[in-house]
Structures are given as structure tokens and as C-alpha cells.
Design brief:
elongated; mainly alpha; Putative multidrug efflux ABC transporter; transmembrane; 12 helices; transmembrane helix; membrane; ABC-2_transporter-like
Length: about 260
């Protein structure tokens, strides 16, 4: 009964947030367009024949960066900025007295935004194929299903990382500054600017121990058909989720206790 009640609340939250997102379609379209960094990187790679150094054809490289674009579109997270703003505006207090953890609200916002963003991402992909007809391919149904799961797990990892950072708002007013520091290794090690396989082997050996390559590189390689360790990739994604979720719960518990103490 409790599970059914929680599911009902989450579904209602998702519907409400989706309705809100529909009011900002133009802004979301701009967000989608702003995520075309992988296409710029593709242009740099192909114009300088950098793909020859990692033995990847132009077609497979094009597919990789297109898939990196899609993964990025549906795994981008901004919860730390939303929570920081709500904290500064005093909106967190009424959230805390509600029976649902406030982060479920932000989680629903992200899912609703992803649903709204989907048609714009498809349009961008359509124009990409017009200019790169050799890159057109249809992933196998099983691979497509695994890619969707992998992208969602990537989203969960990033959501948990940012949620942990967001909890620092209970101690500081500028938790977003810390998130910007985390964004630097995310940008360079996630596969957004270059496939992780392009790094020297001694560097890759420790990069694969971090959560970063499982945010973009693994899902993008999986969807594009490039060689990747499917079992190892999923195992590491699940492992990082299992490590980050207790850390978030601990940070949230400590933060709310401090917040209550400050308000008493």
C-alpha cells in the first residue's frame, strides 16, 4: 500500500513537472542546441585525422560523437544549482515538512525535462545525418535497450554526485562552486571531448576506476557499436551508484540535522 502511494506521488510529480517544462519549450530547445560540443569535437578530430591514432574509422567516430551528444542530452544534471537557489530563497523549509524527500522533486524535474528535450534532440540528429549520411545506422534492439539503461544509470550517477554536493548548501551558500570544480574532470575524462580509448594506457588504467568514463564514454560506445566491455561497464555503473547513494543519505541526514539546529 505504501509503495503504491509513493508511486502515485512520484507519477503526479512527474506530470506536474512535465507540464511546467512544456511552458519553457523554447528555452529547452536552446539547452538542447547548447549541448552540441561533441559535434565540434568531431570536426576537430576528423579535420586533423586524429582518429587514425586510435584505429577508429571516420564513420565510427561520427557515430560515437553523435551518441555522446544523445547520452549527454539525457544525463545532464543541474540539481545542485536548483537546490542552492531554493536554499537561499528559503524554499527548503516547507519541502522538509513534506512526506517526500525534496530530491524526488528535483528528480522528477530532470525526467520531465528529458522527455521535453527528446524531440529537439531527434531534430538535431536528423540534420546531423543529412550532413553525414555515411553515419546512418540502426542499432540492434538489444543494444538499444542496453544503451537506454546505461544512459539512465549515467544519469543516476551524476544525479547522486550533484545531490551530495547540493547537501553542502547546509554548510555553505556556494556549493555550486564545488560542482564547477567537479565539472572539470567530468569534461575531460567522461568521453565528451574525446573517447577514453584515446588516452595513453597508463592513464586509462586509473580513469576506468573513476565514475567519469561511465557517464558518457561507456554508453556512447555501447550505442554506437564501438568496442566496449559491456559487463564491466554496467558493473562499474552499478558499483558507483551503490557507493554514492549511502554517501548521499549520510550527507542529507547530517545536513538536515544541522539545518534544524540552525533554525531552533
Amino acid at each position: 500500500m505504501i509503495s503504491r502511494f509513493n508511486n502515485s506521488k512520484l507519477f503526479t510529480l512527474l506530470k506536474v513537472q512535465y507540464s511546467n517544462m512544456l511552458e519553457y519549450r523554447a528555452e529547452i530547445a536552446l539547452w538542447a542546441i547548447s549541448g552540441i560540443i561533441p559535434f565540434f569535437m568531431l570536426n576537430i578530430w576528423t579535420n586533423n585525422n586524429l582518429n587514425e591514432s586510435i584505429n577508429i574509422s571516420n564513420v565510427m567516430l561520427s557515430r560515437y560523437f553523435l551518441c555522446a551528444f544523445f547520452v549527454r542530452q539525457f544525463s545532464v544534471v543541474w540539481v545542485v544549482f536548483s537546490f542552492e537557489e531554493d536554499s537561499l530563497l528559503g524554499k527548503v523549509s516547507p519541502y522538509l515538512i513534506q512526506p517526500l524527500n525534496p530530491f524526488f522533486r528535483y528528480f522528477a524535474q530532470h525526467l520531465a525535462e528529458q522527455i521535453t528535450r527528446f524531440p529537439f534532440a531527434i531534430i538535431i540528429a536528423f540534420f546531423f545525418f543529412i550532413f553525414n549520411p555515411d553515419s546512418i545506422w540502426i542499432p540492434k534492439l538489444g543494444i538499444l535497450f542496453l544503451s537506454i539503461i546505461s544512459t539512465f544509470l549515467s544519469f543516476l550517477i551524476q544525479f547522486l554526485i550533484q545531490s551530495i554536493v547540493a547537501c553542502l548548501c547546509f554548510w555553505t551558500e556556494k556549493a555550486s562552486s564545488i560542482e564547477r570544480l567537479i565539472f572539470i574532470p567530468t569534461l575531460f575524462l567522461s568521453g565528451l571531448l574525446a573517447p577514453v580509448v584515446s588516452f595513453p594506457e597508463y592513464v586509462r588504467s586509473w580513469i576506468y576506476l573513476t565514475p567519469f568514463p561511465y557517464l558518457i564514454d561507456f554508453p556512447a560506445n555501447l550505442l554506437s557499436g564501438n568496442a566496449t566491455n559491456i559487463t564491466g561497464g554496467f558493473s562499474m555503473q552499478v558499483l558507483w551508484i551503490l557507493l554514492l547513494f549511502p554517501a548521499f543519505k549520510k550527507m542529507w541526514s547530517a545536513g538536515t540535522k544541522k539545518y534544524t539546529a540552525m533554525g531552533s
